[in-house]
Amino acid sequence: MANSGIFGRNAVPNSAIISGFHLPLDADGGIDLLQIKPGTILEVQTKNNTYTVIPQASGEMLLWGHPEYCPEPTLITGLGSAYVTGLFREGYLGTGMRLSFPSGGRRVSTSRIVDIKLKQKN
Question: Helix, strand, or coil here: 5?
Fold first, then answer.
């Protein structure tokens, strides 16, 4: 079937509906954490670990999921993600990028993000 022209070759959604919840995505397919309602639970799957990120009203993020750096919920200022080149985007999470956060006076960058999901509260 020929391309109808409805969707461009590089069409990127500006939002996603996951389990009935709206997850705003930008043109790159990533998430601006400042646009996420405080208390929203995000599950960030990297190649090696699964992290939980919960934006707080203060602008900080509650983060856990790394066995060494944040095995328990930890309040983080400066959470974001880094491109393969190392360029850091604070307050932004994108697939293909590396989750990045400060820990013990240095910046930790994880394996690449493979998926970001909204997680329902129990």
Answer: coil
